[in-house]
Amino acid sequence: xxxxxxxxEKNQLNLEELQKELQNKSEMEFNDTKKLEQYxxxxxxxxxxxxxxxxxxxxxxxxxPELKTKLYKRKRxxxxxxxxxxxxx
Length: 89
Description:
By secondary structure, the protein is an all-alpha fold. Helix content is 91%, strand content 0%.
């Protein structure tokens, strides 16, 4: 996730650079158009990747209650045994 955020920040800086370059020109050249297209493509890939990450996290969260229940039952059983030992001891 950290790498993704770093990539997004880098893309943002690239966009700002491109904006500055274009502001200083009277019209866009072929290379400028290509840079813009590349940026847009990277941005689209980033959005798709974030969507996949969101879906993955959502699936994990949906499974979470089942895991909590299982872990709770596992942790709870030994605790009962310890309480009995303390009462009897």
